[in-house]
Amino acid sequence: MPEAGPAGDGAEAGGSDGVSGPQLARAVLDAARARRESTAKTRRRAAPGGAGGGERRLRGYSGPGPDPRDPQPLGAVLNRLMKARGWQQPAAEATVFGAWERVVGPEVAQNSRPVKLENGELTVEARSTAWATQLRLLAGSLLKQIAREVGHNVVRKLHIHGPAAPSWSRGPRRVRGRGPRDTYG
């Protein structure tokens, strides 16, 4: 006859079979395993892939390998954002102005500056008329350099001007209207 434990008689503690101790633990473990296997079979039958080669585990974000929640380099995040928003062309155009020295080289950048970029046509102002002439001769190689640095079709044509001459149209000695008509004819 089994001994009565703190819960009362042996039938209550050990179940209807009179099982107790390690045998009871083994019976509970076997029942849990059987229940788990039956629910796994039910899931496999209900899964879209059918009952194929073992239990399929849905991949979450745990495990080895990169995770979209991992910290990302700022440059990579900005590149994805620029592609998603269609900002590649404006960013390339801004690079022409922001990194002019890197784009055309230090000597050319020292003697010229970009003024405006419209419809792929870049207007460049040279420091002197001699440099304007030199830049006109180098226009082909400058276009290649710009394309290499910022991308193709950002700048398709160069307009090179010399320094802006002072305007004499304003000031204290200006005569309004057509001026005196007795000169030159």
TrEMBL record:
Residues 7-18 have a biased composition (Gly residues). Residues 1-73, 162-185 are annotated as: Disordered. Residues 19-31 have a biased composition (Low complexity). Coiled coil: none annotated. Pfam families: DciA. PANTHER family: UPF0232 PROTEIN SCO3875. This is DUF721 domain-containing protein. It comes from Micromonospora musae.
